[in-house]
Amino acid sequence: MTELHPRSGVAVSTVGLVHIYRAEGHDVAALSGVDLVVRPGEVVGLLGPSGAGKSTLLSLFAGLIRPSAGRIRVGDHDLGAMSPAELDRYRATDVGFLLQGAMRNLIPYLTPRENIAFAQRAALRAERPDVPAPAALVDELGLGDVAEATLRSLTPAQQQLTALGVALAARPGLLLADEPTSQLDHEARALVIGTLQRVSAEHGTTIIIVTHDPHVAEALPRTVTIRDGRVSGEGRRGEELSIVAVDGSLPLPQAIVAALPPGTLVRVQPTEHGWLLERDDIQTDQATGEPR
Ligand SMILES: Nc1ncnc2c1ncn2[C@@H]1O[C@H](COP(=O)(O)OP(=O)(O)OP(=O)(O)O)[C@@H](O)[C@H]1O
User: Fold this and answer.
1) Which region holds residue 155: left if phi is over 0, alpha if psi is between -120 and 50, else beta?
2) What is the mean pLDDT of residues 106-132?
């Protein structure tokens, strides 16, 4: 069970990805056309307001739900086209999912090492050659001293790192993490994010992290903002950038939308350093389009 062939990260991509939840009486379009490319080994934060579709996107990447339309690829897998048995194997060996709240990922009466060993059963049944020894993974995550401790005696950061060990138990090429720093203090947050980045640097693991925490966003090299079921912006080290859509439209950063509400006329002027958005002071009547 030594690590003979450490897995490197996988590329993740979506084209026109749509997901509709069919609830009784009405449908909810959670994602309405997501185009996204994540390179192998990238660490990307998914940002966006509540209800934007972040968890839905994570569940699609995890193979837990199927897309209503569009394409979704993780490495060599076309997730929308896989059989239930192929998706079972994919979930067991190719992707790790860290659910929000450390203890939701853990069996409370097992130690950190035992939790990781338990999480490896499906990958071992699938005869994966590169599943790490539980004790080695425990050491790698800095949990060597508490490998055989009860979960109750661990600090919140150690519990979260144990949950991370469970998600990494099969050494997946893609790790998905839903709010991995919620309920952690500043120091614990830095430790968990630092550990995620170290895992990616050492093993090439592709990591996608849903977060509402601006400090986490600032620590990540790349963030993608989801709004109303679409990609509305990208960030680099905490700075938000807008993406020009194929139809030439440009979603404005949320802070600017407050100053330029829907219907506002703006002039786009070239300047020496780029482009200037200038608000036109003539107010138009939304219904007639005539000046008021
Ligand atoms: N199982 C479900 N059945 C019906 N609608 C759902 C279901 N899960 C999510 N939705 C709806 O889909 C939309 C997107 O939800 P989603 O949980 O993906 O957003 P989110 O960005 O993760 O939000 P949050 O940050 O609050 O977790 C919301 O309108 C939500 O109400």
Assistant:
1) beta
2) 87
Mean predicted lDDT score pLDDT of the chain: 88
108's CB contacts (< 8 A; 6+ apart) are 151, 152
pTM of the model: 0.86
User: Which residues, listed in sequence order, are joined to residue 282 by a DSSP beta bridge?
Assistant: none
> Ligand 1: which residue has its CA nearest to atom 25?
50
The band of 148, judged by pLDDT with boundaries at 50, 70 and 90, is: very high
Task: Return the amino acid letter for 33.
Answer: G
Give residues with Cβ within 8 angstroms of 271, minimum separation 6.
none
Contact (CB, 8 A) for 107 and 118: yes
Instruction: Say yes or no: CB of residue 7 within 6 Å of ligand 1.
Output: no
The answer, yes or no, to whether any atom of ligand 1 lies below 6 A from the CB of 21, is: yes
Confidence of residue 283 (pLDDT cuts 50, 70, 90): low
C-alpha 106/C-alpha 4 separation (Å) is 27
> Between β-strands 43-47 and 222-227, what pairing exists: parallel, antiparallel or unpaired?
parallel
CATH topology of domain 12-230: Rossmann fold (3.40.50)
Lookup result for tokens 């439209």:
249
Would you list the domain boundaries of the chain?
12-230, 260-292
**Three-state DSSP class for 251?**
coil
Atom of ligand 1 lying closest to residue 57 CA: 18
